[in-house]
Design goal:
The chain is of the alpha/beta class. It contains 13 helices and ten strands. The protein has a seven-stranded parallel sheet. The longest helix has 21 residues. 46% of the residues are buried.
Length: 296
Amino acid sequence: MIWCSGWELAAAVTNAGGLGVIGSGSMYPDILKEHIQKCKKATNNGIFAVNIPMLYPDIDKQMEVIVSEGVKVVFTSAGNPKTWTSKLKEKGIIVVHVIANAKFAQKAEEAGVDAIVAEGFEAGGHNGREETTTLCLIPLIKKSVKIPVIAAGGIATGRAMLAAMALGADGVQIGSRFVASEESSANINFKNAVITSKEGDTKLTLKQLTPVRLLKNKFFDDVQNAENNCASVDELSKLLGRARAKRGMFEGDLEEGELEIGQVAAIIREIKPAKDIIEEIITEYNQAKAELLKGF
C-alpha cells in the first residue's frame, strides 16, 4: 500500500471497526511522524498500525518515531524479523510479520512475532518468489505455526473473507480494495485505472529483482521486452530507476509509472468511503455464512 495508505485511510478503517495501517515505505521519518500524529487525533481509540519494510534505509529513525509516538502495532515486511521484533516487544508493541512461505513463517515465529500475515500470489505489490496462491498458502502456514495467521492476497469481499477463515485464517488483511477508497492517497488516475481493469490486466514481473504485481501499461511492456531480450539485473534496475512507484500510484502517470495492484482489482468497480467498504464486506460475510449454515 505504498503511496496509497496514509493517515486518512488508516484512520477511516480504524474508525469503521478495522485496524487501519499506515504504509510507511514511501515516508521519510519526519513525514511518518506527521502521519502518526494526525492518525492519533483522527481515530476514536488511537489504535492503528504502521507497516515498515525492513529494507528501508533509515529504519533506525523510523523505529524511533514509532516508539516515541506510542504506536501500538507494527507490521514488518521485506526482511529478517529478528532484527527488530524483540526491541519492539520490549516497548509493549505488537509485532506482525508478512511472509509468503512456510520457511519464513517459522522463522518469524521463532523470532517472537505475535502474528503472521500470509500473503498469497494474487496480492498486489511485492510478492513471494514461490508464487503460492492464497488458497494453498493459508492451510500450509496454519499447519506450520502456532501463532495467529492473517490471510492476504485476493481478498476484497465478504465471501473471500469467509473463505480465508474456512482455510484456517484468524483474520484477513485487505489492500487493493482500499486503494479505490475515497480516503486513499492514491492518485485519482490510478484509482480509475483500478476500477476499470479487467481479468488478466495484472501480472507478476521483475522476478530477477523483487517480484512485483503490476497493472499492465507502457512501463510494464518495457520491462517485458527487456526480460525477453535477456536483460541483466543491472539493466533492469536501470530501467526501473527511482521513484517509479511514486510516479504511477501517487502522481498518476499511467504510462511510465509503476502501478502496483492485486488480481482482485478485476472485481473492484467503485470508489467508495472506507467505512462503506468495510460495512459491505461484513454484511456479505454474514450473509454468506448464513447461507452455508442453511445447508447443515
